[in-house]
Specification:
Strand content: 5-15%
Number of helices: 14
Strand order of the largest sheet: 2-1-3
Radius of gyration: 28 Å
Order of helices and strands: EEHEHHHHHHHHHHHHH
Number of strands: 3
Largest sheet: 3 strands, antiparallel
Distance between the termini: 75 Å
C-alpha cells in the first residue's frame, strides 16, 4: 500500500521545493523527484492526505476548481493557443486561491523550460499522479488536446457521482440528526422541569416516565465522561485508519454493509475503469497504468485487488482474471476486461464498464432513501410515542388524582 512522504528538494535553477508524494518506499520517491528534475535533500514519511470519508467520493471546492482549470485549458489548447499563453489567461476564483497560486508557479516553471507534467508534479495536492501521468503521456505522444478533452468529462462524472451519493444520504442524515438533537434537548431541559413538577405531588410515576427520568439523571451525572469517551473513540478511530492494517480493516468492514458496500464497490470500479481507459488511450503501458491506479481508488481493499490485477498482467497470466482471488472486483467487469484484451479494444471496453457502473451507483444511491425512509419513519414514530407516553401518562394520572 502506498505511503505518503514529505520531501524537500532542489530544482535545476537552485530553487528549494517542498511537497508530498505517495509511493511504495523512499527509493520510489527519489525516482519520482528525479523524473521531475528535482534533487532530493530530505524525505520522510508523513501523514496521509485527506480525511476519512464513507464513500471516498466527496469532492470539495478544490475539485471543482480543478475541473474548471481542465476545461479552460482544454478549450484554449484546442483553439490553438500555446500552453504558456493559455496558463496566463486562466484565472479560477479569487487571486489567492490554491489553484491560482499553482497555475502561477506552473506558468513560471513551463517558461523556464519544464514540461507541463513536471511543472504540475510539484503541486501533487491538486494534481494527483494519474492526472499528471495522463498529461505527460499526452505531451510525449503529441495528443495533449485529446487527453485534456477526456480528462475534463471524467472529472465532471466523478463530481456528479459524488453529488448523487450526497443527495442520497442527505435525507437520512437530517432525520437522524433531528432525532438525536431532540433527544438531547428533552433529556437536558424538558425532563428536569417535569421531574420537579411531578415530585411536588408525591405520586408514583409510570414506567416509561421513570425510564426517561433515569436516563436523564444518568446523562446529567456522567455527561462529561460520555463526552470524553466519544472524543477518545473519535481520536482512536482516526489513529486506526492512519495505519495500514487499520484502514484495511475499516475499508473491508464498509464493503460488507448492505447497499453501502455495493455503492462503494461500484463507485470505485467506475472510477478505476474510466481512468484506466484514459491512461491506455494516452499510450501508458498496462502494468504502469495499474500501478498508478492503485491510488486512484479510495478503498484500500479494492486497491489491493487492483494491485493483484497488476501482478497478473506483469506475469502474463491474464487468463486468471476470473480467478477466485478477486472478491470485490465484479465478475462482469473482469469478464469485459478479458474480452477487451482478446479483441484489442480494452480502452473502449473500459469506457463502457465505467459508464455502466456509474449508472449503477446513481441508481443504488437513489435507492438509499427509498430503503431507509420507512425504517426512519418507524424509528421516528417509536421515538415520538415513547416521549409522549413518558410525558403525558403521568399528567393524566395527576389529573385523576386532582379530580379524586
Amino acid at each position: 500500500m502506498p505511503t505518503q512522504f514529505e520531501y524537500q528538494a532542489v530544482g535545476s535553477d537552485g530553487s528549494r521545493k517542498e511537497g508530498n508524494l505517495s509511493a511504495e518506499d523512499k527509493e520510489r520517491v527519489v525516482e519520482l523527484l528525479v523524473e521531475q528534475g528535482l534533487i532530493p535533500i530530505e524525505i520522510k514519511a508523513g501523514k496521509p492526505k485527506g480525511g476519512f470519508t464513507l464513500f471516498g467520493f466527496f469532492k470539495g471546492q478544490d475539485y471543482e476548481d480543478l475541473i474548471a482549470f481542465t476545461n479552460n485549458l482544454s478549450t484554449l489548447f484546442r483553439a490553438g493557443i500555446p500552453i504558456l499563453r493559455a496558463l496566463n489567461l486562466i484565472k479560477i476564483g479569487s487571486a489567492n486561491s490554491p489553484i491560482n497560486k499553482a497555475i502561477n508557479q506552473i506558468k513560471m516553471d513551463v517558461q523556464s523550460g519544464k514540461s507541463l507534467a513536471r511543472a504540475m508534479g510539484v503541486h501533487d495536492t491538486i494534481f494527483n499522479r494519474v492526472y499528471i501521468s495522463s498529461i505527460a503521456a499526452g505531451e510525449e505522444s503529441g495528443k495533449l488536446d485529446e487527453i485534456l478533452g477526456k480528462l475534463s468529462p471524467m472529472l465532471e462524472k466523478e463530481l456528479a457521482l459524488a453529488r448523487q451519493i450526497k443527495s442520497g444520504i442527505r435525507y437520512p442524515a437530517m432525520v437522524i440528526g433531528a432525532i438525536a438533537a431532540a433527544f438531547v434537548v428533552l433529556l437536558a431541559f424538558v425532563v428536569p422541569r417535569f421531574v420537579a413538577f411531578f415530585d411536588s405531588f408525591n405520586t408514583e410515576l409510570p414506567l416509561p416516565t421513570r425510564i426517561l427520568i433515569g436516563t436523564s439523571d444518568f446523562f446529567q451525572a456522567y455527561w462529561i465522561y460520555l463526552l470524553a469517551g466519544l472524543i477518545a473513540l473519535f481520536l482512536g478511530f482516526r489513529k486506526l485508519i492512519r495505519t495500514e492494517k487499520g484502514k484495511l480493516w475499516v475499508d473491508g468492514l464498509l464493503l460488507k454493509i448492505p447497499v453501502v458496500g455495493q455503492i462503494i464497490t461500484k463507485g470505485n470500479v467506475a472510477r478505476f475503469a474510466l481512468m484506466f481507459s484514459i491512461l491506455l488511450k494516452a499510450g501508458i503501458p498496462i502494468v504502469r497504468t495499474l500501478e498508478l491506479l492503485q491510488e486512484s481508488v479510495k478503498n484500500s481493499v479494492i486497491g489491493g485487488e487492483i494491485r493483484k490485477l497488476g501482478i497478473l498482467f506483469r506475469e502474463g497470466q491474464e487468463q486468471k482474471l476470473l480467478g477466485s482471488e478477486f472478491e470485490h472486483l465484479p465478475e462482469m467487469a473482469l469478464q469485459m476486461m478479458r474480452i477487451g484484451l482478446e479483441s484489442g479494444s480494452l480502452d473502449t471496453i473500459l469506457s463502457e464498464v465505467g459508464e455502466h457502473y456509474s449508472k449503477e451507483v446513481q441508481y443504488a444511491s437513489s435507492q438509499i432513501t427509498a430503503i431507509l425512509e420507512p425504517i426512519l419513519t418507524l424509528v421516528l414514530g417509536v421515538f415520538v410515542l415513547i416521549m409522549a407516553l413518558a410525558i403525558f401518562m403521568p399528567m393524566w394520572n395527576l389529573i385523576q388524582v386532582i379530580k379524586g
